[in-house]
Design brief:
Number of domains: 2
Number of strands: 14
Shape: globular
Distance between the termini: 27 Å
Structural class: alpha+beta
Helix content: 40-55%
């Protein structure tokens, strides 16, 4: 049976309905009816904030006044829910039944423990503060998002990775509660992993079974930032590990649903960016057996997304993501070439056609992006990826 197959229309429709209901549920969960939404300008851009009262744990009063960041005012999905705030009502049982139907149909879902960890961070406000779920957990959500069924070991994971731009973490004017405490409420064996660059700031937490929860942020500055945890105001008492190439991955993320319990509304990288990014990071893995295994998984995930995007008529999105990455310079180009050399012929052909289509739409030359239109000649500035693949 193929690893990627077309989902029936009924399941595609159900996933889209679940995603909308889960976002409604997020508003119910995080913004009680005792408050209201306020539009504010920060550095020339408009944002929604919620102004209300935190629950009083003693039950003796109204609670303390609080202001929570909601999101950009020009995001139509947020604006529509702000407008309909008083009328939003969710049904947990119906959403749970939808999740059960979708997983019974073969859509990927996390293990209970991993799903619970993601749910904890969702309810604590990570995605509201514009955080992005990355890694294999994000990959699991693409099945419903793209309307395809996906199978295989590339869907399994033993960790959870979360990313956030440092500039956003500093600008939102809001922060999460203590993350270590949140994790220990689920599993008391969670402990911060001392960071070699600065042991007083944790970016990663591990439990007794070896499960990792890690926070990451793009490094677009000096190489001196590598290996030094970045303090993240929105994450409270937690820092994040700066990584190269991550800014490409989490730029312009999309909303999806992790199929756990009644559905967890998450923000994930755009699937075409995820696919291209996996080709890059596959070349950066360590050469030990664990690194090689992860690199193979990266390439498999990229290939599956190539096929899914092609199946859904979204090849041009893939091609545009490739050309954007390619335009970032020789270091990126070499990583893309090296990563693509590990793909199978079908995936390379899909990618080639996607790049040719994107170049045609933007009146560019595919030869300049590693893919001659005929698939035989060398590209300008070096051997084409197609030729490299043929010579393997």
């Amino acid at each position: 049976m193929p690893d990627v197959t077309k989902l029936p229309l009924a399941h595609q429709t159900m996933f889209a309905d679940l995603a909308a209901r889960c976002m409604d549920a997020a508003f119910d969960e995080q913004f009680p009816e005792n408050g209201s939404f306020v539009r504010m300008e920060v550095k020339g851009r408009a944002y929604w904030y919620y102004s209300g009262y935190a629950p009083d744990p003693t039950g003796s009063g109204q609670g303390t006044r609080r202001k929570l960041y909601v999101g950009p005012a020009d995001d139509p999905a947020i604006a529509s829910r702000v407008a309909a705030f008083a009328d939003i009502k969710t049904n947990y049982r119906e959403r749970r039944q939808m999740v059960q139907s979708l997983t019974a149909a073969g859509l990927p879902s996390p293990t209970g423990f991993v799903g619970d960890i993601t749910e904890i961070l969702w309810k604590a406000g990570f995605f509201r503060l514009r955080g992005v779920l990355i890694g294999t957990l994000a990959f699991q959500t693409y099945s419903g998002l793209l309307g395809v069924g996906m199978r295989g070991s590339a869907l399994m994971t033993g960790d959870a990775d979360f990313a956030l731009f440092h500039s956003i973490a500093s600008a939102v004017g809001d922060e999460m509660p203590g993350i270590l405490g949140l994790l220990q409420d689920k599993d008391p064996t969670f402990r911060p992993v001392p960071h070699l660059g600065r042991q007083t700031v944790a970016t990663r937490f591990k439990n007794a079974r070896g499960f990792d929860v890690e926070f990451l942020t793009p490094n677009r500055g000096s190489d001196a930032n590598q290996g030094k945890p970045a303090p993240m105001k929105a994450l409270g008492d937690v820092g994040a590990e700066p990584l190269r190439f991550l800014d490409f991955l989490i730029h312009a993320p999309v909303r999806s649903v992790l199929l756990h319990k009644a559905g967890i509304p998450v923000t994930v990288p755009a699937p075409e960016r995820y696919a291209v990014h996996k080709l890059i990071v596959a070349t950066l893995r360590k050469t030990d057996s664990n690194g090689r295994q992860k690199a193979r998984k990266d390439v498999v995930q990229a290939g599956m997304l190539f096929e899914a995007l092609d199946m859904e008529g979204r090849s041009i999105d893939l091609g545009l993501a490739w050309t954007e990455a390619w335009d970032r310079g020789p270091r990126w180009q070499q990583s893309l070439v090296n990563g693509t050399s590990a793909l199978d012929r079908k995936s390379v052909d899909i990618l080639r056609q996607a790049v040719i289509q994107a170049c045609r739409e933007e009146r560019r030359t595919a030869c300049n992006y590693g893919f001659p239109p005929d698939g035989d000649n060398a590209s300008d500035g070096g051997a084409s990826i197609a030729k490299r693949k043929t010579m393997r």
